[in-house]
Automatic annotation (TrEMBL):
This is LacI family transcriptional regulator. Keywords: DNA-binding, Transcription, Transcription regulation. The keyword Transferase does not apply. SMART domains: HTH_LACI (SM00354). InterPro entries: HTH_LacI, Lambda_DNA-bd_dom_sf, Peripla_BP/Lac1_sug-bd_dom, Peripla_BP_I. GO terms for molecular function: DNA-binding transcription factor activity; transcription cis-regulatory region binding. It comes from Mucilaginibacter auburnensis.
Length: 345
C-alpha cells in the first residue's frame, strides 16, 4: 500500500502560519492578498509539489469538465472508433473523458453509471448493455439534471438526444445483395438479447427475404448470447446450421465480434470460405482487407457517431435552458464488397 499523501492547502497554511482561506485566495491570485503573501504561498506550493484537488474543485464549482462514456468493451473495433470520435471533439472543447466498460452486464452498467455520477461528470454518453431492460438508473440521473445521450444502442424509454445508424436499411440492403448474388439459404446469427440494434437488423434481414420472394426459415436464425464472447456457444450454433438437411450457403452476422469469430471457427471446422459457405457481416475491423479471405462487411461510421454524440452532449451541458425537444441522428452504413461473398456459380 502506498504511503504517499498529497499536500493540501491546510498543510500549506499550517506550515506558513496562515489561514486556509488566505492560502486558497493566494493560490487563486485573489486581489485581496498581497503580492508578498502570494509569492510566499506559491513558492512553498511549488517547492513541495502541491497539486490542486480537481474533484473537490469540481464539486464546489458545480462542474468538472469531464464526460463519462459507457460502452460494452473498448476492444470492440466499432466502439474504439466511436471513442476516437468522442475524444476528437471533447479535447478541443476542454473536456476530459472517463471510459467505463459494462462487458454487456446490466449490474456492471448500473454500478459504473453511479460511479461516474459520483465523480461529478458533467454529462454521459451511453451505449446500453445487451442485458439492460430497465433504465431507471439513467432516468434518475437525468431527473437530477445530468445530461445523458444515447449512442448506437438506444432506447425509447427516455427522452434525450440519440445517435444511431441505419441498422434496418443496412441489413435489408445486404440481405438483398446476397439474394441478387444467387444465395438462397441465408443464415443469420444475431444476439440472444433484444437490443434496438439487433431487432432492427433482424427485421431488415427478414423483410429483404420476403421482398425477394424467399421464405424466412427460423432454423437459419441463431440467437447467440454474449455477443461473440462465448466462442463455444457460437461453435454450437454453427454446428447446428451445418447439420440441417439444407445447410446455409452464406452466413450473415449481425455484429462485429461474431463476424470475425465466425470466420475463425469456420477455418477450425475445415469449412472453406467462400467455397463451402460465404460470409458477410457487420464489422468495423481494420483487418477486413487482410483476413483470409478479405471480408465483405457492412461498416458503420463509428468516428462520426462519436463526434455527433459529443457535440450534442456538450451543447446540452452548456445550455442553461432545459430542452423539451430532442433529436435522433441516424447515420448511413456502407456495404464494402470483398472476397468472402463472390456469389453462386
Amino acid at each position: 500500500m502506498s504511503s504517499y499523501k498529497a499536500l493540501t492547502m491546510n498543510d500549506i497554511a499550517k506550515a506558513l502560519n496562515l489561514s486556509a482561506s488566505t492560502v486558497s485566495k493566494a493560490l487563486s491570485d485573489s486581489y485581496e492578498i498581497s503580492e508578498k503573501t502570494k509569492q510566499l504561498v506559491n513558492d512553498y506550493a511549488k517547492k513541495n509539489n502541491y497539486r490542486p484537488n480537481l474533484i473537490a474543485q469540481s464539486l464546489k464549482q458545480g462542474h468538472s469538465n469531464s464526460i463519462g462514456v459507457v460502452v460494452s468493451s473498448v476492444d470492440n473495433p466499432f466502439f474504439s472508433q466511436i471513442i476516437n470520435g468522442i475524444e476528437s471533439v471533447a479535447y478541443d472543447e476542454g473536456y476530459n473523458i472517463i471510459i467505463s466498460q459494462t462487458h454487456e452486464s446490466y449490474d456492471l452498467e448500473v454500478k459504473n453509471v453511479n460511479h461516474l455520477a459520483h465523480r461529478s461528470v458533467d454529462g454521459m454518453l451511453v451505449a446500453i448493455s445487451t442485458e439492460t431492460q430497465n433504465i431507471d438508473h439513467l432516468k434518475k440521473l437525468q431527473q437530477h439534471g445530468l445530461p445523458i445521450i444515447f449512442f448506437d444502442r438506444v432506447t425509447d424509454d427516455m427522452d434525450t438526444h440519440k445517435v444511431t445508424v441505419e441498422n434496418f436499411k443496412g441489413a435489408y440492403d445486404s440481405t438483398a445483395y446476397l439474394v441478387n448474388l444467387g444465395y438462397k439459404r441465408i443464415a443469420h446469427i444475431t444476439s440472444a438479447d433484444e437490443t434496438s440494434v439487433m431487432r432492427e437488423r433482424l427485421a431488415g434481414y427478414e423483410k429483404a427475404l420476403t421482398d425477394k420472394g424467399l421464405t424466412v426459415d427460423q432454423s437459419l436464425i441463431k440467437h447467440c448470447a454474449g455477443t461473440g464472447r462465448d466462442r463455444e456457444k457460437l461453435r454450437e450454433a454453427l454446428n447446428e446450421l451445418f447439420a440441417l438437411p439444407e445447410p446455409p450457403d452464406v452466413i450473415f452476422s449481425a455484429f462485429d465480434k461474431v463476424t470475425t469469430v465466425t470466420l475463425s471457427l469456420l477455418h477450425e471446422m475445415k469449412k472453406r470460405v467462400p467455397q463451402d459457405v460465404a460470409l458477410l457481416g457487420f464489422s468495423n475491423t481494420i483487418l477486413a482487407d487482410i483476413l483470409n479471405p478479405p471480408l465483405t462487411s457492412i461498416t458503420q461510421p463509428g468516428f462520426e457517431m462519436g463526434k455527433e454524440a459529443t457535440r450534442m452532449l456538450i451543447h446540452l451541458i452548456k445550455d442553461e435552458h432545459p430542452l423539451t425537444k430532442f433529436e435522433t441522428i441516424v447515420l448511413p452504413t456502407e456495404l464494402c464488397v470483398r472476397d468472402s461473398c463472390p456469389g453462386k456459380k
